[in-house]
Amino acid sequence: MKTGYSIRTWRMRLVCPEPIWLDRTEEYFQNVVEFYYHLLRQHEELWNSSLFDIQRSLELLSLAGRDGRQPTNPLPMGKVPVYLRRAAINKASATVKSTQELQSGFPEKLEAKVTFFKGMYSDLTDRSICLKLWNGEKWIWTDCNLKGRSFPQDGQLMSPTLVKEGRCYLLNIPVKQENSDARTAKERMAEGTNLCSVRFTNTDTFAVCCILDEQGKQLAVHTCRGGDAYRHRCKLLETRIQKSRPNTVGDNSPQPNRKYYMHLKNLSEHYAHQVSREILNFCKENQAGIIVLPNYDQNFTRMAMVKSGNFSPLHLSSKIRTNLQYKAWAEGILVLETRTDGLKDKCAICGGKVRRKGNEFLCENGHQGNRFLNDARNLGRKCQDSFFRGSRTK
Ligand SMILES: [Zn+2]
């Protein structure tokens, strides 16, 4: 079977016993980048060479040879760790090359974030990492803690990059995951696959999911609940923000109530992860190779989002979708979208016209049941039909 891979970035909070060393390491790296940037700008004859050739040439200019040859442009900071030096040279070369391509002027200053390549870090886990840091005089291996979501078990961790956000330090760590199935939707449909269609709602149910086999027969149904609890917990936080407002109006704090807003944000993220995980587990249990999400037109989406409120189960669906996209990919499941026009007016059992009665539907031929499930079934079938147009009888 065809396979592929994806790379996602994990953002981890970095807790360092000597935060000042992080600043010094960054500054040190910045100096090395600038040194090579200026050196390369003086050597126009190198600009069209490959990155590899530029690297070799710049090293010849700046480092002493084994045979005792003295460099014309020695590094002012003395001996620089090899991978840090190469990262700096790459950054400088990439900037010069892109300046040429865009035919823009050379920027005076370069913003260079430190990436810890091989030799600059070790013992990377979910909880800790050992970084080689510059304390202003020498390099010191420093044990730091990490806070954040754990890495996927089969993920391959790549070189972390240091990022400063406000007063916090973060490590961005790319995680590479093999994907067991890189077939296209068309190939999957042709070979036959179960499909999971999803209908998001603004009730206690975040999503109704329905598994259809390749003939369009319903095999299983699952509802992701917790919408009311989510709404309630958000409401409590919003009330707290309201109540504390009179007390914070006079504050000079740039972002009063930040704590509560962060809570709200975390709450949304937590639920979005949980629901997307639940949908995905349901897909795996039922061997679904494709997930179908409703694709509403933009006006409808905007209206529905405004009507449902900022912290409602339906509003969360956009976050759930995003999470599903990348989680599904890592599991080898494809996510498709299908237009929903006309789907809610049709009975999924007989195709007859339906009336809506609260959360139920009532068909002209007597069928009735949950209208969200009816929508989900219709959505799945419509998606299947779009692949087998004309070749399947109903
Ligand atoms: Zn019917």
Task: Provide the residue-averaged pLDDT.
Answer: 89
CATH topology of the largest domain: Nucleotidyltransferase, domain 5
CATH-level-4 superfamily name of the largest domain: YqgF/RNase H-like domain
CATH top level of the largest domain is: Alpha Beta
**Integer-rounded radius of gyration:** 28 Å
CATH architecture classification of the largest domain: 2-Layer Sandwich
Proportion in β-strands: 15-25%
Extended strand count: 15
Uncertain regions spanning at least 5 consecutive residues: none
How many angstroms separate the termini?
31 Å
Helical fraction:
40-55%
Sequence of secondary-structure elements:
EHHHEEEEEEHEEEHHEHHEEEEH
Largest sheet: 7 strands, antiparallel
**Structural class per helix/strand content?**
alpha+beta
Bound molecules: zinc ion
Helical segment count? 9
Protein name: Transposase
Organism: Blautia faecis
Q: Topology of this structure?
A:
Elements lengths: L3 E12 L3 H23 L9 H12 L19 H21 L18 E2 L5 E7 L4 E9 L8 E2 L3 E5 L2 E12 L5 H7 L2 E7 L4 E8 L5 E8 L1 H22 L9 H28 L2 E8 L2 H11 L4 H18 L3 E6 L14 E4 L2 E4 L4 E3 H17 L7
Parallel strand pairs: 8-11, 11-12
Antiparallel strand pairs: 1-4, 1-7, 2-3, 3-4, 5-7, 6-7, 8-9, 9-10, 13-14, 14-15
The chain binds zinc ion.
The site of zinc ion has 7 residues, from loops.
Protein name: Transposase
Organism: Blautia faecis
Question: Mind explaining what this structure looks like?
Answer:
The protein folds into two domains: 182 residues, no CATH class; 203 residues, YqgF/RNase H-like domain (Nucleotidyltransferase, domain 5, 2-Layer Sandwich). The chain is built from nine helices and 15 strands. A hairpin with a 5-residue loop joins strand 9 and strand 10. Zinc ion binds next to loops. This is Transposase.
